[in-house]
Each structure stands twice: as structure tokens, then as C-alpha cells.
Give the backbone structure.
Amino acid sequence: MAIAVALFLTARLLGVAVLALAARATTGRNPLGLLGRSWDSLWYVGIAAHGYSRTQHARSGATYSDVAFFPLYPALVRAVRAVSPLSGGASGLVVSWTAAAVAACGIYALGARLHGRAVGFALVLLWALLPHSVVLSMAYTEPVLTALAAWSLYAVLTGRWLWAGALAALAGLARPNGFAVAAAVLAAAAYEVWRCLKEGRRVSHRLWTGAALAPLGWTAYVLWVGRRQGNLLGGYFEVQRRWGSRFDFGHGALQFIHHLLLHGGRIVFPMAMVIVATGIVLYALLLADRAPLPLLVYSGVLLLIALGGSGYFESKPRFLLPAFPLLLPIAQALVRTARARPWHATVVVAALAGLSFAYGAYLVVLAHTPL
């Protein structure tokens, strides 16, 4: 796992170095400030410092409430601030960078278990070099969710149901789409129960307990927000609607794509469209490869949420960052290429790195578009 973490850190540090050069050359801003206090990071830092207390009224009439943001990441940031002299933004970076390293370990463990160590290393490297992987170096929640998801899925595949359920519950407290981890655990548990009944075996109490734990984090926070809003079941979704986010089965996204194809737009929008389309193709390949059920359910739910949600089209690639199992077919192909034609694989990795570093620097320094 040390090699996997070294690969990940090397890729991300090079990306941060390119971002720092771009920031100094164009805006003169402190790159760590950009990474630690941009867009949603400001909301998380505010929650860590003051709790849930902020509501912002936009000129458009929209009302933005900080209860839209799940509590695990701010709680971790607050804990780091309590034991260190770091600022809120710096504490957020410590949490995110640590979680990203833990996630890299979990991703390697899954890839190695399924297809061998080489695929595990390739999977980590590809995840570190995604076009939006700069988010993994920012004070955002995706590294935390990915770390919890990777190890929860690994626990499912190795039959550690209590760990799987507990980590899924924590993932449900990290992000709204963290429910995908619980869905994967529940689907795997249901399949295992069916197998036990079919074969006349007793169902372990650990399996029942793990399955019961899995959805508790996400459900508890949604109900807490609902109670606070005076609408137990619908309050959280009303908060999201006021942010412009709702699940409309892709109607809003299709309308946006139609407008984009007719009238064009800034590079972040066609790039988002290409990344989401690539995600669909990769999921089809994952299905064709007959990947384990928990990985299919987890990736499928994340993809469904990204496709079916309206609002913030440019953020959809970020929503797919935790969907690392989608990269398994590419990781296997990269390993086969590296063994047959090493220079070809080197060129591919170098091209991915160039795209990731340049586009990441553009997103954070120059795009001025919400991530």
C-alpha cells in the first residue's frame, strides 16, 4: 500500500505544483488559500467554526442554507482546529489530504483483491489523474466519502459486515450521495441472505447488524434537517431545491445539454458533458466485466444521482469522483498495455497527467465557476 500512496501523492503534488505556478503567474493569489477556501470550502469552514447558522439570500431570490451540507467533514475540520493552531482552511486541507491517502489505500486494496497488485496500482494512479482530481487536493468532502466507500466496499467483499455497515453509516454523514455506499451494502446483504436461505444456512447476526447500520447516518441527518425545517420527510429536499438542486430524472440536464449544443458555453460545460458520457460507457464496461454486485450498485447509484440531478451541471464530474470502480476496466487495459508496450502506457499516463494538471489549475485559478 505504501507504493500506492506514493503514486497518489506524487501525482497530486505535481498537480498542486502546476496550480501554484498558474496562481502566481496569473492572479498572485496564495495557492493554499485557493485550495482551502474556494466555493463550498467556505461553507464547510463556516459550519466548522460556527455550527449550522448561516443562510444567504441571493439577488435571484434563491435562499442558500448551510444545512444542505452534511456534518461529518465540518466535524472533522473542527476536531483538527481544536488540537492544532491551524486555520479553518488549513484544517480542511489536512482532513482532505489525509482522507485522500486513506482512500488511495482502500482503492488499491480493492483493485488488488479483484485483479492483482498491478491493477490496484493502476486504479489508484488513474483516480489521481482524473480531469477533476484537483478536488482531491482541496478542502472538499469527496476524499472523505471515497475513503469510507472504498473500505466499506472492501469490508463487504471480505465478509466484514459490521465494518461495512459502520463505514457506510459514516459515509452517509459525509455527502448527500453518500447513500450510495449504504445501497451497495444493503444490496450485497440482501444477496447474501438469499444465498443463505437457498443453501439452508443460518444468516449471521453480524450481517443483519451491518445491514441495519448502513443507512443510519444518511437517514438520521435528513430527518434532523426535516425536523428543523418543520417538514420531517421533505425538509432536507426542500433545502436542496432552494439551492437549485433536485432529482428530476435528468430532465434539467438534458435541457442544459440541448442549450449547450445549440449555443455553446465555457469549456467547463462541454468537459462536464464528456466526462459524464464517459462515465456511462465505463459503467457499461463494468457491467460487461461482471464486476461484484456491491461495486455495480455503488457506482450505479452515484451515476444515477449525477445524471438525474438538475442544477450545477459543471459539478457533475466532481460528483463522480468517488465512483472509482468505473475506472477498473481502464486500469486493466492500462496494465495489459504496460506489459505488452511499456512506452505506449507511459505516453497514455503522461497525457492523462498533463490534462489533469492543466485542467485542474484552470478550474481553481481561472474558471471562476463553482466546482
Notes: The longest helix spans residues 88-115. The chain has a mean pLDDT of 93. The radius of gyration is 20 Å.
